[in-house]
Write a structure and sequence with these properties.
Blueprint (H helix, E strand, L loop, with lengths): L5 E4 L12 H11 L9 E5 H7 L3 E3 L7 H10 L3 H9 L1 E8 L2 E6 L4 E3 L13 E3 L5 H16 L4 E10 L2 E12 L5 E2 L15 E2 L1 H13 L8 E5 L24
Helix pairs in contact: 3-4
């Protein structure tokens, strides 16, 4: 029998400011909800509070758009200062449309607007960038949690991304520590004893999508989810496991 997968949103985490102790808030919220941590539990955390705690907020009044940013702003009808931040966070521009610039982010994945975001950011005229190194952020948080609790834990940092050929955003991984990014099932047998030849499960993204349902996407105010019953062994993976190489990427 499979262990049930249980996802519990942590209530009561305040609006995060630069320098805040995220681990302290997570442990306090867990205790208030009577969540007694166990080995192999996972915390899924939205990138937004990681970025806020790490001071990744930019005052748009300090941003001077380049000539390229001004050209793209005219084409996309976006604020030229936001376009400039998108370009600074990107390796390359992949596609351009109305109010969207699809890029290869400096972290290696393809996403809209390089993850530069203004939702739930106070006051106006500011924008939030993705964490500079989400894997390192996840590792640092996991290690501190493990020191505080004595448990073997995983940490997953997620963001909302759109997808090719489908409408709507979905939670995806942008950083992880203490858990696998993918699980390779090739060589295992199916129900009829046929050997699996191509099945590699994006386990971290599957959990990210589940957790984003619990977090919500608007004003719910639940940026951390506690997970118990993850169906795969915890091991130290990283974001690069989830990235398709250029040689095998048929969609650019």
């Amino acid at each position: 029998m499979h262990t049930p997968l249980v996802l519990s949103p942590l209530e009561g985490i305040p609006l995060i400011q630069a320098g805040d102790d995220l681990v302290g808030f997570i442990l306090q919220a867990s205790e208030q909800q009577s969540i007694l941590l166990q080995n192999n539990d996972i915390f899924v955390i939205t990138q937004k509070i990681i970025s806020k705690a790490e001071g990744r907020i930019v005052d748009l009044k300090t941003v001077e758009p380049s000539a390229y940013a001004l050209d793209l702003a005219g084409e996309t009808h976006k604020d030229p200062r936001l376009v400039e931040l998108i370009l600074r966070e990107s390796n390359a521009v992949i596609r351009v449309g109305h109010d969207v610039i699809v890029v290869e982010h400096k972290l290696g994945f393809v996403c809209a607007n390089a993850g530069v975001d203004q939702s739930n950011i106070e006051p106006p005229e500011r924008a939030l960038l993705l964490p500079e190194d989400p894997d390192e952020s996840a590792r640092r948080i996991r290690q501190q949690l493990e020191v505080e609790t004595g448990m073997h834990l995983g940490v997953l940092i997620i963001d909302s991304h759109g997808r090719s050929w489908r409408v709507g955003v979905i939670g995806v991984s942008v950083g992880l520590s203490g858990m696998p990014g993918v699980v390779d099932l090739r060589g295992k047998s199916d129900l009829f004893d046929r050997t699996l030849r191509i099945t590699v499960v994006a386990a971290a993204d599957e959990l990210a999508a589940a957790a984003s349902l619990v977090m919500g996407e608007a004003n719910e105010g639940t940026p951390v989810v506690h997970v118990r019953g993850f169906p795969y062994p915890l091991e130290d993976g990283n974001m690069s496991q989830l990235l398709r190489s250029r040689e095998t990427d048929l969609f650019r």
